[in-house]
Amino acid sequence: MMNIYVKVGIAIAIAFSLGSQVMAAEGGNPKKGKHLYKKECKACHSANSEGKELTPMTKTMSQWDRFFTRDMHKAKPAVFEALSEKDLKDIQQFLYDHAADSDQPATCG
Ligand code: HEC
């Protein structure tokens, strides 16, 4: 028989693993995301830097969602590992809101 602590522990573990999978672009703070994007991403993603030049318009809304939920910056996993889930969600929201097929596509940021 499993004791109550084991059951509660399993329930929490399941809740956490579900929570991190369902990370569609909603509920993030795009203003904070824009600030974080400039701070955390632009250094490597501007002209003449290590990564390709990137703007929100580089991808479509669904491509950004896929990037943040599946790819997770596999070219350099340490980049995403260094950021909190909340910060990543905010950055995802900013990029999604201004994606190529969004209402307000943006090359700035
Ligand atoms: C330490 C440098 C560095 C930082 C910081 C960094 N990246 Fe990257 N990123 C790279 C490199 C290198 C690649 C692989 C080469 C490429 O595709 O540009 C890459 C690849 C990517 C790609 C794939 C490009 C494509 O066309 O599919 C995306 C999207 C991306 N990064 C987004 C981000 C975001 C968003 C951030 C901020 C959270 C970020 N990167 C921060 C270096 C960095």
UniProtKB/TrEMBL annotation:
Superkingdom, taxonomy of origin: Bacteria
Signal listed as a keyword: yes
UniProt cross-references to PROSITE patterns, sorted A to Z: CYTC
Cytochrome c domain: residues covered: 28-99
Record flagged with keyword Nucleotide-binding: no
Pfam families in the record: Cytochrome_CBB3
Signal sequence segment: 1-24
This protein's UniProt keywords: Heme, Iron, Metal-binding, Signal
Protein name: Cytochrome c
Organism: Shewanella vesiculosa
